[in-house]
Every structure is written in structure tokens, then in C-alpha cells.
Amino acid sequence: MRKDRFTGKVAIITGSAQGIGFQLARDMAGEGAKVVISDVDESSLKEADDALAEAGIAHLAVRCDVSSRPEVDALVNKTVEAYGRVDILVNNAGILKNFPIEETTDALIDATIDINVKGALYAIRAVTPIMKKQKYGRIINVSSICGKMGDHSTTFAYGASKGALLSATRSVAYNLGPFGITCNSIAPHAVMTKLMAYWDEGRREDAAAKIPVRRLGTVEDISNLMMFLASDEAGFINGENVNINGGYYMD
After folding, report:
1. Residue 129 located in a structural domain
2. Residue 158 bears catalytic tag
3. Is 71 among the domain residues?
């Protein structure tokens, strides 16, 4: 595999202070990208910033609450000021809470939609004129298996938000494809990140037993897929949602 797939490319990755986003930042930088990490959690972002600096990775760290349109615009503007372009946008920031339907508050519904859906839409809108001018772009939305088959384990607003991302992906792909910009989404399942901390060991073992490859997903698994979708090798893939769940859900 080539190790220079992203030389000269600039990538914004939201929600990248830890987990999947941080792994992706490290991997893309390892293949030549200038990475911009962002997160709403300032302490985690500082740790990620320090870790990348210690590894000698050129990067930019910007605190950003994606539910705030001005902050998303500022993230994109700071990226352009620093690097002059935006080639890759990964909408990875998300919120997941575990509540029954009747206990899901208005505030949680609003937060889930604001972060998981509106945050991605704000970011896509902000990078569109830049990518159009470049006649090049790669947009990746992190959806979920819950967006395809519904959700029975977290708040019902989460599945709804991830389903919305699937539709948004197709809309963006149709509209921006003629400008050399692709938009795809991924639908992970059972990837053990901080968001999945509410799964105890018994539930993890049960989940792994139901997956044909008999294991849970890793952040490396997800990063590898997103690296491919963000590369020129995937230039003819547009408007697709890629399942990544070890065969648990196939369509």
C-alpha cells in the first residue's frame, strides 16, 4: 500500500481528540496529510494536541462545538488560514446516550440532532465553496448501523440522527459530484470507543459472539476504511454507505 496517499492534502476531522477520530488523524498524517483535529472537550483536545506534537506530526488543534454554526465556520476558516485549502472533511463528532424513549428529554433530543446532524450539515456547507473552487474534495460522514436498522439499545433520537446522515450523504453526493467532490458515509457497529462505555463485559462478549467474524471492531478497522474513502483510490465511489460490522448486518 502507498504511504503517500495524502501528501499535499488537508484534512479536518471533527470529534478527533480520542477514539476513531484521533486514530484517523494519526494515520492520515502518517501518509502525508496536514491534519486539523477538533473537539468540544478542551482537556482531551490538549492531550491529543500534545501527543501529536510529541510524535512530530504537523497539525492544527481547534476547539469546536459542532452544534454551533459560528464555531464550525471558525474551524474551517482557521484551517484555510493555516493551510490554504480543505481537501478532506470527516464528520466524526457525535453524541450517544442510553435512555428509554419515555425518558428521553427534550434537551437530549435537541443535543443529539444538533451535534449528530446539524453539526455535519454546518461543516459540509462551510467547506463546499472551498472544495468547489479546488474542484476536489472528499467528505465522509460517520453514521451507524442504527441509522439503517433502527436502534434498540440507546435513545431513539440517536438512530434517527444517524439515519438523517445517510440521506444527507446522498444529497451531498448528487449536488457536489459534478465538482470533483465525493461524499460517502460509513455505518459501524460494536466498535469499542468511549461512546460505548455503557456496554459491560457481558454485553461485549455477547455482541462479539453474534458477529460472524467473532470479534468487536477496533478504531484501526474504522480508520482503514475512512482512509480508503478519503483517498484518490476511491474517486469513483460516491453517495454510498459502507457497512463495517464484521458481517453482523448485511444489505
Report:
1. yes
2. yes
3. yes
How large is the average pLDDT for residues 194-219? Answer: 78
Q: Which domain holds residue 182?
A: 10-242
Indicate whether 67 belongs to any domain. Answer: yes
Residues 92-136 have pLDDT tens digits of 999 998 899 999 999 999 999 999 999 999 999 999 999 999 999
Cβ-based neighbours of 127, under 8 Å, separated by 6 or more: 12, 76, 86, 89, 137, 139
- The answer to whether residue 142 is domain-embedded is yes
Q: pLDDT-based confidence at 80, cuts 50/70/90? A: very high
Closest CA to 92 of 226, 198, 232, 250: 226
Q: What is the CATH number of the domain that holds 47?
A: 3.40.50.720
Question: Which one of 158, 174, 198, 249 is the catalytic residue?
Answer: 158
pLDDT for position 125: 98
**Domain total in the chain:** 1
Instruction: Give the pLDDT confidence of 138-193 residue by residue, as tens digits.
Output: 999 999 999 998 877 678 999 999 999 999 999 999 999 999 999 999 999 888 76
**Ramachandran area for residue 50 (φ above 0: left; ψ -120 to 50: alpha; else beta):** alpha
What grid cell was written down for 59? 497539525
